[in-house]
Amino acid sequence: MSDVTTSHTLVDSRGSACPGPITDLAMAYRRSKVGDVLELWATDSGVKPDVQAWAAKTGNRIVSIDDEPDKIVVVLEIVRR
Amino acid sequence: MALPVAEKYGSEIESKETTSKFSIVMFSGTADKFIPLGVMSQAAAAMGMEVNIFITGFALPAFTKNPPAELPFPAEFAAMAPMLMQGMMAHNVAPWDVMLRQAKELGAHIYACSMMSEVMGLKREDFNDLVDDIVGAATFVQMAEHGETFFI
Question: Which residues of A are catalytically annotated?
């Protein structure tokens, strides 16, 4: 059915200190649905272990974690709400 | 440089618990203790945990409608305090009350100790909107049962 549409949401947490990025992610997660993709941008170095802990805790899937010159980019797929 | 985390966590997805409890008894009244109170509460709430904070003793005045203008640092940290505060500003670290508001937005609750409120002459209407209710210690112990409890 075409009424089930998933979305790709950018969560820009650049410049936000821990635990800001994980909080921004949790806020976006609350508005998400299964199948959605959340893309988190952050500059706080704690975000890499933190998103892995968050995904393990909430039962969601990390698609990728990339170190870009100016930011860390994490892509998550929401598989559990 | 993508990390192969999807494979690592993919197999664990189904078995994970979604909720657990994170309880804090906040007894202190100095700035050095309010910062971790905010950070840990916000982080635990963002992790989807049930967060309950019991404020008592020297922590209570900071949660009233007439809070102290500035929370003091203990004498042993006083020399480091200006450098710490400056660093926090430079790194956009949110003030403790803003972090608690974020935690509450994610479902955290804050309860004032009934006994200490009486001792300090504080009534329900004297507390600010961060405080959900005034409860006794037994109520909080019941809430915290089967979870982790921290004393700050």
Answer: 18
Q: Where are the alpha helices (DSSP H) in B26-107?
A: 31-46, 81-90, 96-105
B39 to chain A, any CB pair closer than 8 A? The answer is yes
- State the pLDDT confidence band at A3, using cuts at 50, 70 and 90: low
Domain count, chain A: 1
Residues 6+ apart with CB under 8 A from B146: B21
Q: Which two tokens stand for residue B52?
A: 């309950």
Flag whether the ipTM exceeds 0.95.
no
Is A55 inside a domain boundary? yes
| Residue tagged 């961060």 (tokens) | B130
Contact of A43 with chain B, judged by CB distance below 8 Å, is answered with no
Question: Which of A26, A31, A1, A29 lies closest to A16, judged by CA?
Answer: A26
Query: What's A31's domain CATH number?
Result: 3.30.110.40
CB contact under 8 A, A52 and B9: yes
Instruction: Dump pLDDT digits (tens) for A6-44.
Output: 899 999 999 999 999 999 999 999 999 999 999 999 999
End-to-end CA distance of chain B: 40
Domain span including residue A66? 8-77
Q: Is there a domain that residue A2 lies in?
A: no
- For the full predicted model, state whether its pTM sits above 0.90: no
Residue B106 near chain A (CB below 8 Å): yes
